[in-house]
Amino acid sequence: MRRTTREEQSPIFRFYANDWLASNDRVKLSLEEQGAYILLYCRCWISFEIEYDEEVLSRMCNCTIDKIRRIFAKLVEKEFLVKKERNGKTYFICVQAEQERKEQAINRVKKQKAGKLGAKIRWGNK
Hints:
- The chain has about 130 residues and is mainly alpha-helical.
- It has helices at about 15-20, 30-45, 55-60, 65-75, 95-125, and strands spanning about 50, 80-85, 90-95.
- Helix 2 (about 30-45) packs across helix 5 and helix 3 (about 55-60) packs across helix 4 (about 65-75).
- The radius of gyration is 19 Å and the shape is elongated.
């Protein structure tokens, strides 16, 4: 079911190559961990969170269950992912995706206000 316009998720997120390459935390991740993180970031962007199901996650990241355990441990340790418990299940939230989501919401409100002000100036109170 489609969400209302107010709840609708932006289909894009900003990913700054320079910030990613310059990140001190990123250089401490293996190439495999970096790739898994990008896949998980995209999943978090779409779904807001990831349920911790090792079998599904290992398939999603194209690796073994043992590797996904190690990858998740490292991503949580470096605070790329935050662990949440709800209804007896474990979920992970991507910190960077949540920050981006908040920034987009703030920018959306600013642009709405600017648009309304511009229309009022141009058209008056008709």
